[in-house]
Design brief:
It contains 1 helix and 4 strands, in the order βββαβ. With 71 residues, it is of the alpha+beta class. It has a 4-stranded mixed beta sheet, covered by helices on one side. A hairpin with a 6-residue loop joins β1 and β2.
């Protein structure tokens, strides 16, 4: 029997950061993270190699709705 591992809840500063997916134009690689609203600096959190990783990112940080893609 398999047991689901409990997902660790994490937080981010919603006043200064927004969740984004940074996508490479060259190879299509996607990385989930947070972009500083004021400076545009990107903080990498995890590689998104399939839909399951995107769902994990959403669940860990409590993100619903669309996530903007940046290039």
């Amino acid at each position: 029997m398999f047991f689901k591992k409990k997902i660790e809840k994490k937080t981010y500063d919603k006043e200064t950061q927004k969740p984004v997916i940074k996508a490479s134009i060259c190879n299509g690689e996607q990385v989930a993270g947070f972009q500083d609203i004021h400076t545009g600096a990107f903080e990498e959190i995890m590689l998104i190699s399939n839909e399951n990783y995107l769902q994990l990112f959403r669940k860990q940080y409590g993100i619903s709705g669309e996530i903007e893609k940046i290039y």
